[in-house]
Amino acid sequence: MYVMPGAVPSERGRDLKLGDFKVLTFDVYGTLIDWETGIIEGLKLLTGRASNSLGRDEILEAHAYHESTIQRLTPSKLYRDLLPVVYRRLAEEWNVTASWDECKAYGASVGRWPAFADSVETLEYLKKHYRLAVLTNTDNVSFAGSNQKLRVAFDNVYTAEDVGSYKPTPRNFEYMIEALGRHGYDKSQILHVAESLFHDHAPANEFGLTNCWIYRRHDKEGFGATMDPGSTPHVDFRFNSMAEFAAAHRAETDPQN
Fold first, then answer.
1. Can you give the pTM of this predicted structure?
2. End-to-end distance of the chain based on CA atoms, in angstroms?
3. CATH number for the domain harbouring residue 120
4. What are 159-201's pLDDT values in tens digits?
5. Which phi and psi (to 5°) does residue 78 adopt?
6. In this structure, what is the dihedral angle of CA atoms 48, 68, 192, 128, given to the nearest 10 degrees?
């Protein structure tokens, strides 16, 4: 599917503008943090010992399978404790020996994964116009490391550790919507911003949340570190980067600038 960046014809019967919303809720990994680069770098010790040459997408797709499987089977396991199990499953799949200490080191690597080049500046800009919240499939310690790289004070942080499950489980979105409701925000005032069709946009559709696809993989095939969602969810906005999102907001609020 290719859609020109910007607003997508809405199924909700109205023309949408970025200025219609008061809260931006973000997925972090894949949207603001370049987790695919973080994963590839974090697995180098392992992939370097594999007998067969492994392509980048082959590594990411294997990671996506084991991560999503373990998240489904052990939804209360902390992300920093879940990733070592992913590492072990990958080692077994690639017939590589890996110590548990090596597995644990990978689990502790999340806070070192890099931010996308446009994330910090864009978040600084958007903070002036919206309440910023996070709905992330990680734990509080791992996210704290990533938040240092993003250099913004999010108004609300909702982690998988807080909820006891991982997206795309509906309860994560239920938790976020209810929590923001206690701050006085109806879901019609929320724009959910994410890269993953599987983890975020499919469940956002189920909850009737307006959504914005940051299509970081627009120039690549496949789904990378996320699972194939099956059918393509509806998206209300689509941009290829956070910088495009900010530029569209500027153009909307100050057309002559």
1. 0.93
2. 32
3. 3.40.50.1000
4. 999 999 999 999 999 999 999 999 999 999 999 999 999 999 9
5. -65, 145
6. -40
Cβ atoms within 10 Å, residue 27: 23
Helices (H), the chain: 35-42, 44-47, 56-73, 79-93, 100-107, 119-126, 140-150, 160-163, 170-182, 202-206, 242-253
55 & 21 share domain? no
Phi and psi based region of residue 216 (left: phi greater than 0; alpha: psi -120 to 50; beta: remaining): alpha
Residue 199 to residue 17: CA distance in whole angstroms: 24
Q: Is residue 1 part of a domain?
A: no
Span 121-163, pLDDT tens digits: 999 999 999 999 999 999 999 999 999 999 999 999 999 999 9
Q: Which residues are catalytic?
A: 27
Residue with tokens 């807080």: 162
